[in-house]
Amino acid sequence: MLDELQRLALETVQLNKQALIFLPSRASAEKTAEDIAKVLQFHLPELAETVEKALSNPTKQCQRLASCITKGVAFHHAGLVAKQRELIEDEFRSGKVKIICATPTLAAGVSTPAFRVIIKSLKRFSANWGMDWIPVLEYLQMAGRAGRPEYEKFGEAIVIAKDEKEKKEIYTRYICGKPEEIYSKLAVEPVLRTHLLSLIATGSIRDEKSMKDFFSATFWAHQYSDFTELENIMNRMLQRLETWQFVTTGKTKKSTGEFIAARELEEQKTALHATQMGKRVSELYLDPLTARHLLDSLAAFQRNDQKKKQERSDVFPLLFMICHTLEMRPLLRIKSKEEEKIQEELNQRYETLLEKEPSAYDAEYEEFLFAFKTTLFLDTWIQERDEDYLLETFDVRPGEVRAKLEIADWLLYASEELGKLQELREAVRELRKLRLRVKYGAKEELLPLLKLKGIGRIRARKLFLHGIRDLGDIKKADLATVHQLLGKALAEDIKKQVGEETIEIPKGTRKGQVSLEKF
DNA sequence: GGCAGTTCTATATAGACAGCATGTC
DNA sequence: CTATATAGAACTGCC
Question: At what angle are helices A189-201 and A227-243 packed, to 10 degrees?
Fold first, then answer.
């Protein structure tokens, strides 16, 4: 017995057309793709191979995708690695892939029109409300993918209703309904903070008056009819920026005692300037709240570090620091099964963290735990566990792993920059190392080897296991040994790399000399 | 008793835009 | 609060 989606898919293929099927969750996208794969007859082994090779160690997810794509069907969601997503989109456009089962990622992203768009459900799980109707705008975005103007005169968008009643509701709600008002992004506090600081840093806003002028001209103000309330919000933001020491206002400064005209004095009182730190924060595109959090944590780290000099400093607190930010969201959620284990782990680690644990009754407590789990995940990554292990242990798919690593890298870079400006030497040193470790997913001991081009964590570990632990060891090592470990071309290449290194160190004095045998 | 197959139940749920300068298996 | 896929528990029936 075929279900409705299988039948629709089959029919689309028989028409020699393509379809895009939107589903509410990743699980259902994958499931549907597999169901459809069962009823299609295509055979595209070369695509399957590319999909599987996207990762060095294919995960279960990769294998499922591979077996679907052989049949001309693919699932598409944020859990996939960018490479795989691109491949799917390209092959859909080229016509080899006939059906894509996607979550709404695809609707918002690149242009992949299809003759037919099928929307399985217009409801989606939302944290606050349970299953709820999605916005009309989102429906339009999905339906808008139907039809490829260059090739076809029309396209079809099909919405599936589960019964007559739902059919009517969908009709009134979506077909006849108006898209909701576009709300201004400035209404979101973090965006407002960031924006305000950047305007002050660049000099576009120089005093309270120009601040009011600027914001009253925005779309935000246009929507927000109560201007007094709006002014209150702005002033509150401004005050925060001042307490965080990213901005100085006239009130902060002392009077110079010089004679100035009353009006100028008034202007000086309300003059707004970004501090040096404020400017850097703005250049880094950081939410000021995050920046403050990073600065405070770094200072705490530096203090702790000095307290226990002899102990090898632990990077876990720094990882937690970057995980407990708005930027890292959405954080890994804690399933009820693992709650106890995570709690236990937290109790062990708690002492070392750079901030206090909120009370268990606090609204922020859950967030704190999620951040902690996310930290455990990053920590596991830098212990050299592979993607499959992360998928099994944390239920994090490869695409999400990459996304989180990228954010982590960015935040570590930003922390490093802020640390430099504050002259937090030890913290900066640790951050620099940590950033490399996060990038490569490696333990600290591999860092010297990772400097080499062509050497990632896998090869570095291999060398390390054979007693080659740093650049000096590579110089000392026999070419044949390295050759055996890494292959001919790479062995010669890294020998050359360390060889050149010896030329560069004493700048100018030994120009052109290649001294391999010297070591 | 030991198992294979079945039904029941608990659980979880979409996504992405920043800086910077290139390269893992 | 409306759904649905999935993993694992609990249950069934068969030898």
Answer: 70
